[in-house]
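User: Teach me something about this protein's shape.
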Amino acid sequence: MVAWALRIVVGLGLMLALFWPLHALRAGLGPLATWGPPLLVLLLHPLVLLTEGVLAALLHRDDPLPRPGPVARLRAWRAESRCSRRLFLLEQMLREHRWPDRPVPLSQAAGRRGVLLVHGLLCSRAVWNDWQPWLQARGVAVIAPSLEPPFVSIDAHADRIDAAIRHLAETTGRPPLLVAHSMGGLVLRAWRRSRLAAGERPEEVDARVGPVVTIGSPHRGTWLATLGALLPNVRQMRRGSRWLTALAQSESAAWRERLVCVRSDCDTIVFPPAGARLDGAGQDLLLPGRGHLDMLQDPRLHRLVQELLDAP
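Assistant: First, the predicted structure itself:
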């Protein structure tokens, strides 16, 4: 669904960029009216990211992390623009199923943990296309579902997550490692709450999974969600939302201890940066100068995941 939406939006943008100048020239419009709209279409993506970066800088306020300087933010904006352009316009739009799920047989998995990769809002399984080759090359069982439809309650994905966790556990004989980006971290926390609501005991649910790595997840909400009042999952990610409060109240200290919260001081989606930190989490990994999607490319994050996979 996300892939088709991107194709439609990009197709309309290209049509405007190509045909508007012809119309404007025939109508005798001036240079600004002729070339302004196509130029705006071509620059819209980096301009949106730049606006988000300015908002993040203005709303950093008294966040415990030191405020990044203008040079650091500009570098993060440039890297994020390049990374997100590739992930959206190439991987997600054209290569969603480039790397099919690979739940290898138990004999091949040799007791190694499987990995469940969970994407965030307005994304699909294709955001993990850079992760799939090195995980699969090590014989790791990988499942990366596309969570659809995109604009529903975060709780609506719990059953799909539960099925993937069960399948990985049956395939490998071990509780899987869970890795989630952005809203995906809340999806995993909502999955646990759904199992408690179904009558499972907390210790039984916790034992079904290994470590949980969340990357730029708005555990405390994000200011940017204030702009998405019409979308149910965006409303849930508002700072101080009743949904986030109820989710936190359902969790135990033992569950939070297994979480690793990865965040950045230059995240332009989850800001202020403290929004990506969860009280009681077992580990807090800071990736300075990285954008929201660009964090997925950081070698320190890859090393962390590798260490968790190799741990006994």
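Now, about its shape. The chain has two domains: 2-94, 106-310. Residues 23 and 29 are 9 Å apart (CA to CA). If you'd like, I can walk through any region in more detail.
User: That's plenty for now, thanks!
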